[in-house]
Design a protein that fits this description.
This protein is of the alpha/beta class and about 375 residues long. The chain has 16 helices and 13 strands.
Length: about 375
């Protein structure tokens, strides 16, 4: 490959989200291929901050709001002079484009879209998100490259922001790194995952509206009428008490566990009988890829990225969004007739650090 570049990846925080985890993975992948990488953030806090490899520099802008950070961002660009700047998230993309224009720097700037823009805009009530499609329409053409994390995201972005589809490059998230197998083999000592324990259904994600764990809990309650099962949901968020109350109302609270955010969810995934994705929308779904790479069976809603990763149901059952009956049926059928783990792993290892780093480097 050509000589390594100086690369900055911009992510607002290290919150427990998919885009944040992917940014850290991409930083590691690019570093391994010879680039000098810095992760730039507004605030160096959040549960993922401790997962950043020690050989990756972290720089901080300060401030709480993306739209107000473009002046500090401009000064960073002038001082650091990266060859390549990779922006992430809606408003992070916009202010990066503004800052480069004001800084008058010759760097190459890539903007990454991680979620379905139409669904994200609809889900958020505040005006900052409502104007995002318009801001994208006006300013995204300034970017040197536009990256979408799935074909579903690319098509949605093109339609919602009126950007030509051929101007968008699809690069799947880097999920399977060199230490993936080692991380997955770490011990999971919770008794529910013991060898002879009842099967565990696993959900992972922020306890928020768009992940729709309400439907998953209702589906689990229906499935439990036919089979002795346990449900574990990893993550934190505003819906925790509401979900716990729902489990209690359904009389299944002793079979439902919410152990909070886990920096390494892979041992849970590897030891689960089934991973269930109940989201209203997903740009790609890192959890689906992690499950595939662990050889764990999957049931997912038909919600953007997952059907693409699962190849329209070849690697896991797909159900309508919000349909607890369909999800319960699919979970029971999958538990009774699981897919071959080797086949799933063969699909999962398609989403490697190395592959993503190579495709990003082509855009450099």
């Amino acid at each position: 490959m050509s000589a390594g570049k100086s690369v900055t990846l911009f992510i607002p925080t290290f919150a427990a989200g998919g885009a944040e985890r992917v940014t850290i993975n991409l930083a590691a992948a690019l570093t391994a291929t010879g680039h000098k990488v810095t992760i730039l953030t507004q605030r160096p806090d959040g549960p993922l901050v401790n997962t950043i490899p020690p050989n990756i520099a972290v720089a901080t802008l300060g401030g709480n709001r993306s739209l107000l950070s473009f002046l500090p961002l401009m000064r960073y660009m002038q001082r650091a002079k990266p060859d390549v700047f990779i922006a992430n998230m809606g408003h992070g993309n916009i202010i990066s484009l503004w800052a480069r224009t004001l800084a008058k720097m010759p760097m190459r700037l890539l903007c990454c879209q991680h979620s379905l823009l139409s669904a994200e805009t609809k889900a958020h009530k505040n005006w900052q998100y409502k104007i995002l499609p318009l801001l994208y329409r006006i300013f995204l053409p300034w970017a040197d490259g536009i990256v979408a994390v799935s074909n579903a995201v690319a098509v949605d972005l093109a339609e919602t922001a009126h950007i030509p589809l051929d101007k968008i490059t699809v690069i799947y998230n880097p999920i399977v790194g060199p230490d993936f197998a080692e991380k997955s083999r770490q011990k999971n000592s919770h008794p529910w995952f013991a060898e002879n324990a009842p099967p565990v259904i696993l959900g992972i994600g922020r306890l928020s509206e768009e992940k729709d764990f309400t439907t998953l809990i209702k589906a689990f309650a229906l499935a439990r009428k036919n089979k002795d099962l346990r449900l574990v949901i990893l993550g934190e968020g505003s819906k925790r008490s509401e979900l716990q109350q729902l489990a209690k109302q359904l009389g299944i609270d002793e079979y439902v566990l919410l152990p909070g955010f886990q920096p390494n969810p892979l041992p849970f995934i590897r030891n689960a009988a089934l991973v269930a994705v109940s989201s209203h929308y997903e740009g790609m779904s890192n959890v689906v890829v992690e499950a595939l790479a662990c050889g764990t069976n999957i049931v997912s809603t038909n919600c953007g990225g997952p059907p693409e990763i699962l190849e329209a149901g070849r690697y896991g059952k797909l159900v309508p969004v919000g349909d607890d009956t369909a999800m319960a049926t699919a979970m029971l059928e999958t538990l009774d007739h699981p897919q071959d783990a080797t086949l799933l792993r063969q699909r999962g290892i398609h989403f490697t650090f190395e592959r993503a780093a190579g495709l990003y480097t082509q855009l450099f």
